[in-house]
Every structure is written in C-alpha cells, then in structure tokens.
Amino acid sequence: MDPTPGNDDADAAQVPLPGTRSTFSLDINGTARTVTLDHRTTVLDALREHLGLTGAKKGCDHGQCGACTVLVDGRRANSCLLFAVAQEGARITTVEGLADGDRLHPVQAAFLERDALQCGYCTPGQICSAVGMLGEAADGFPSHVTPPTATTVPEGPAALGAEEIRERMSGNLCRCGAYPHIVRAIEDVAP
C-alpha cells in the first residue's frame, strides 16, 4: 500500500466507523444544543467546529496551556480533554456565555479596564479560569500557597492576594506576558 497522503486508506481513516456517533444534547450557555458527533469529539472541537462558538481556543491540545478553559457545572475545565458525549447533562459555560446581554461579566470588565491582554488568544481561557477560580476560593478550596489550617474542612472564602491569584491561575499561560495586568484585574473583582 502507498502510505502517501490522499490515498484511499488515509481518507478512509477520517470516516467514522459505524456506531461511533451519537446524537445527544449539550447545555451550552444555558441553551440546549442537540448535536450528532463522533464519540471522540472533544468539547473544544464541538464548540468551535460544530456550534460556532470560537471563544475557547485550541492552544496545546494537551490540557497544558489553559486557552480552552470553559466552566463545566461552574468548575473550570480544559475543554480539549473532555469528550463531548460524556458531558450530556452538564452545564457548560463559555466566555460567550458570561455576559448578561450587553453587560459584561465583572471579570470581563476588569480585564478590559486593566488592559489584561495583549494578543488576546489566551484571554477567553484566562477569563473563564478566573471566574471558576473565584468560585473555588469563595467555596473555601485551598491552593498550594494557602496557609495551612488545623482542619481540612474549608473555613470560608480564601483570601485572594496576588500570590494566591498567581498560584490559582498558574494553569493558564500567556505568551505575551500580561500576567501583572491579569492579576490586578482579578484582584479588582475578588471579594
């Protein structure tokens, strides 16, 4: 067989096998969306390629850069690592779903006010991660730099200084280096 691109064997590899597609519903930004997808389709590819929501970006496609971060049931998640078919019944919120009509989410507004972006590629993931992180801190989840306590039970909201924010946002990379502005924007909205 000739292994060169364009031969019949290579093209056949792109065709899904029988029984590898399902029709299911995803709750995206509060709207039920019915999709028929290959079982291997990630949430990121479903959003971008099938639903036209291009806010979440494909950076590394390995869960290491955070550009694809969305909220799943209020918790931040790398959408490039989640199979879409496994998210039926979950509430997925993308950067497009954070605003309330024309009124930006407070984190979105703070990013604009603090100029917490340069090229903007990582910004949707940074914003979704910040929203999720603020929720985690409000629920009392500690981070690596949270001062230890005598108990493992959260004692209330975590105090979010610059060091705590940097640690909690460390899974989101910015190649432009806008980190100081990102931290200040989050500090502006942190309780």
UniProtKB/TrEMBL annotation:
Q: What keywords sit in the KW lines?
A: Iron, Metal-binding, Oxidoreductase
The name on file for this protein is Xanthine dehydrogenase YagT iron-sulfur-binding subunit
Enumerate the InterPro entries for this protein.
Answer: 2Fe-2S-bd (IPR002888), 2Fe-2S-bd_dom_sf (IPR036884), 2Fe-2S_ferredoxin-like_sf (IPR036010), 2Fe-2S_ferredoxin-type (IPR001041), 2Fe2S_fd_BS (IPR006058), Aldehyde_Oxdr_Iron-Sulfur (IPR052914), Beta-grasp_dom_sf (IPR012675)
Under Pfam families, the record lists: Fer2, Fer2_2
- Report the source organism: Streptomyces clavifer
Presence of the UniProt keyword Iron in the record: yes
Question: Which chain positions lie within coiled-coil regions?
Answer: none
Q: Which PANTHER family does the entry mention? A: OXIDOREDUCTASE WITH IRON-SULFUR SUBUNIT, OXIDOREDUCTASE, IRON-SULPHUR BINDING SUBUNIT-RELATED-RELATED
Which intervals hold domain 2Fe-2S ferredoxin-type?
22-98
